[in-house]
Amino acid sequence: MSIDLTQFIPSFLEESFEGLELMESSLLNLEQGDDETINSIFRAAHSIKGGAGTFGFQNVTEFTHLVETLLDEMRDGRRKIAQEDVELLLGSVDCMRLLIEAIRDETECDEDKIAVNAALLEKTLATSNNDITEATSTTPIEETPESTSDTASWQIEFIPDHHLVQTGNDPLLLFNALADLGDITLVANAKELPALNEMDAEELYLSWLLTLKSSASEDEIKEVFEWVEDECLLILTKEEQSEPEITTVDEPEITPADEPEITPADKPSSAQVTEQPDKSETLVTEPEKVISKPQSSASSATEKTTAKAKNDLGSIRVGVDKVDSLINLVGELVITQSMLTELGNDFDLSKIERLNSGLEQLLQNTKELQESVMRIRMLPISFAFNRFPRLVHDLAIKTGKEVELVLNGEQTELDKTVMEQIGDPLVHLVRNAVDHGIESAEVRLANGKPQKGTIMLDAYHQGGSIVIEIKDDGGGINREAVFNKALEKGIVDENTTLSDSQVFDLLFEPGFSTATEVSDISGRGVGMDVVKKNIQSLGGRIQVESEQGKGSTFRVNLPLTLAILDGQLVRVGSETYIIPLITIVESLQPQKELINRVSGDMVLYRLREDNVPVIPIYQLFNIPSEFENIESSLLVVVEAEGQKIGLMVDDLLAQQQVVIKSLNDNYQQVEGVSGATILGDGSVAMILDIAGIINMALTKAQNNQRYKSINQPQVGQLVSEGVNL
Amino acid sequence: MDIQTLVDEVPVEGEYSLEGIDFITSGEQYLTFLLSEEQYAVDILCVEEIRSWESPTRIPNSPSYIKGVINMRGIIVPIVDLRMKFNIGEASYCETTVVIVLTVETEDKTRTIGFVVDAVSDVLNVENNEIKPAPAFGGCVPPNYLAGLINVGENVVTLLNVKALQAVEKHQLSQ
Predict the structure, then answer these.
(1) A437-441, A679-683, A707-711: which has the minimum mean pLDDT?
(2) Which residues of A participate in catalysis according to the annotation?
(3) pLDDT digits (tens, 9 = 90+) for A434-476
(4) In the list A42, A55, A254, B60, which could disulfide-bond A621, CB 3.0-4.6 Å?
(5) Interface of A with B in 646-705 (CB under 8 A)
(6) Of B51, B59, B105, which to mutate for an interface test with A (greatest number of A Cβ within 10 Å)?
């Protein structure tokens, strides 16, 4: 039976990336070291190798095999987990990722890098072999796990699901494969076999108890069952009577040549070595592991969704609970709908009360449904955070600093699109924190701080937005240095007095860097302005707090979702516009004495100590308006990019949540408008892009000046430059 | 309604005639419509729907022939007045004024745009060899929008290039 394997490649790739992700994060935790972690790393590598082998990705199989061998040595305790090995493995994980990405993109990958890494692995493995021989001579116990894997008697209880044969698996083939590993005896259990008349010819009712005498390792045996793993209950036990087997291990024909030293006398000494897992313990735990394996890999799979989301915008993993709640809600909706239909059949006025309550219920249902659907797009921020342990780890090594990364609030949920776009700015901020924020160990000690610097990533909800904090306990931002640099660049002049936050905001000016030397990590001065721009394009903002000597905090404020926005509906003439609530500072009725006209036709409104330029929307958009003078209209003061403006509108309408629709899909980006939405009456309303409007007004003012001199009327088309998207 | 009435209502074969219905013919089908007195046609497979005129929401600072956007079942669809775009006749809005919504897949994306026309008239079956090239001179319609001419009895129907129409407002704005 031949199956077109290529159809499974995408899922192989996805699983491999998840596996790599798991390997990476586990390797980083491995520094503290424990058996379960290394086992999970090994399993991930093994699945990748197995999958790659199936699909014939030779290079992946070969490379992964090296990694696996190294891991195997660590797992068996033949090799101490040394820092440089972990680094090597991390590098290897990167190589595997390159290889698999190359398969995905159907491109060639950097062969050299892979070759170098493979050579390193081989070298390490070669030295490890020496270690082993040394180890065998000094502490023969190290060999104990090895010895048990020689010609052991395995009890394999194989209870397949009834539908096993329907998926194209044949137990006979499995047994043949097992027979290749060693002597096999097999007892079939036909207890479940139903009476002939009840029997479904396509179902499998048998189960088997196999006894395998083989030198194969547990993994090799499990590999045979790899394809049916999810469709059977497999209990693998090493026979306790392997005690006598151990003695037979001495029989020369079975014992591999490089393990001559094992004698029964070595056995008892194993108990004395505490760092070595006790043999009986391994025996007990192993069967459990076999059974628990599918579960643990499944749960780890749900935890780790693909981090390479950029290339994989297509799919989203959703928790079953979310889908269940959605189904429940749809169920309720259907009930409400049928109730209303019932009511609609011969309706009379006596039923109006029931109609009202029905409609209310419908409203409730729709609201809940909307919330649930929105929640589907929400992912815990750990998807964005989980790349940071590796990043900080690598940076710390590169800079020779000691840095600890603390993650908080990883379960805080965030819209998928926001998450994808916030990743890079966060990387930049974390990089800065390691490179510029945290001081070197000596400086820290001299300043009476703990040797190890701490970077804290924190995420939490605040109102309708999510706050992400990047906090370091480093040297803080040198206010003077920033100010002087700004002077030098001519951004500020000497006499201006700036508040701390204003000074720190200068960091986000393009080309601004106070780093005395440029490193390959950061300091070129490109970046912070991009970070700010990215965050603003998501409708968020960034604040800096810093105290010299104590550290700095970068606080990023983001809207929870890009799909829905809290808006203030306003009316200008006959048109309705929506102003994002987050940008509104206040709305007011202009008072005559606070209106000032300056430099010709510019109107300023005095809002406490600020002079806010007034922009009439009707002029900007060339539409008729009810009120053309500011005294009789209303003023909505909005703020974007640190600039406050007053928008002149005819009337304030309701505040409501609106679903953002792109104009770009069927039309094009429109200046001053960030999108459109559909109002309750089915009509379309434009959502104002405040930053864009400020830009438009600026360009328009400049063009006005330019054209006034030659006395030409202003044309709307001239505003086309300086589009702010 | 019981089953018997249902059965009674189902027409028996041969009870209705196919006379006058010419959809089972060869060739491509085109939807024809009127701009002032002139007949134009577009490929019928691109027609998403035909809807009556409703006042759209204006797009700030857009050219006058872009009337605005409407909500078509949750999709924001821009409305282009072909009469204003091509300078044909008067742009008046009455009961027969309709909007033909066209959807065209271009290389990178699918765009849906509504076009205001004076009236929708007919569906034509046209063989490819019946389409004559349009003369490259004269007229209000820029030549890149023309796909050819079709003779229908005494009249000439101008076949419009749907792909060009989809780029109609982009093209214009970039100028």
Answers:
(1) A707-711
(2) 46, 68, 432
(3) 888 888 888 888 888 888 888 899 988 876 678 899 888 888 8
(4) B60
(5) 661-663, 665-668, 670-673, 676, 678, 682-686
(6) B59
Q: Where are the alpha helices (DSSP H) in A150-263?
A: 171-181, 218-224, 242-249
Band of pLDDT at residue A292, cut at 50, 70 and 90: very low
Query: CA–CA separation, A421 vs A310, rounded Å?
Result: 9
Nearest CB neighbour to B71, from listed A575, A678, A717: A678
CB < 8 Å to B109, chain A: 665
How near does any CA of chain B get to the CA of A408, in Å?
39
Contact A666 B113 (CB under 8 A): yes
Assigned token pair, A276: 């070595």
Tens digits of residue pLDDT in B73-84: 888 899 998 888
User: Which residues from B are below 8 Å from A667, CB to CB?
Assistant: 59, 69, 76, 78, 113, 169
Strand partners, B5: none
Q: Which residues of B touch A682 (CB under 8 A)?
A: 71
Q: Where are the domains of chain B?
A: 25-174
Beta carbon pairs, A and B, within 8 Å: 71
- Give B-chain residues touching A693 at CB under 8 angstroms: none
Q: Are the beta carbons of A686 and B57 closer than 8 angstroms?
A: yes
Contact indicator for B71, A684 with CB cutoff of 8 Å? yes
Give the CA distances from residue B26 to residues A593, B22, B29, B43, in Å, rounded to whole numbers and listed in that order.
Answer: 77, 10, 9, 15
- Cβ proximity of A506 and A492 under 8 Å: yes
Cα B72–Cα B78–Cα B83 angle in degrees, nearest 5: 115
Q: What is the pLDDT of residues B153-162, one digit of tens each?
A: 888 888 888 8
Please answer yes or no on whether A686 and B61 come within 8 Å at the CB atom: no
A561 closest CA partner among A386, A327, A379: A379
Per-residue pLDDT of A281-290, as tens digits, reads 433 333 333 3
Please state the pTM of the whole predicted model.
Answer: 0.50
Q: By the CB < 8 Å criterion, does A596 face chain B?
A: no
Q: Is the pLDDT of residue A31 over 80?
A: no
Q: Do residues A472 and A399 lie in contact, with contact meaning Cβ atoms separated by under 8 Å? A: no
Q: Spell out the residues 6+ positions from residue A431 whose beta carbon is closer than 8 angstroms to its own.
A: A391, A395, A521, A522
Whether A383 contacts A419, CB under 8 Å = yes
Considering only alpha carbons, which residue of chain A is nearest residue B169? A667
Report the relative pairing of strands A403-408 and B66-72 from DSSP bridges: unpaired
User: Is pLDDT of B29 > 90?
Assistant: no
Asked if B61's CB is within 8 angstroms of A621's CB, the reply is yes
Kindly state the average pLDDT of the residues A427-440.
84
- Write down the pLDDT at residue B3: 67
Q: What percent of chain A has pLDDT over 90?
A: 2
Burial of A635 (0-12, 13-18, 19+ CB in 10 A): buried
Residue A149 φ then ψ, to 5°:
-85, 0
3-state secondary structure (DSSP) of residue A529 = helix
Nearest-neighbour CA in chain B from A355: distance (Å): 25
What dotted CATH number matches B25-174? 2.40.50.180
Partner residue opposite B57 with nearest CB, options A665, A683, A716: A683
pLDDT for residue A244: 42
Residue range B85-106, pLDDT digits in tens: 888 877 788 877 899 999 887 7
Over 80: is that where the pLDDT of A227 sits? Answer: no
Residue-level pLDDT at B100: 92
User: Looking at beta carbons, which residues of chain A come within 8 Å of B115?
Assistant: none
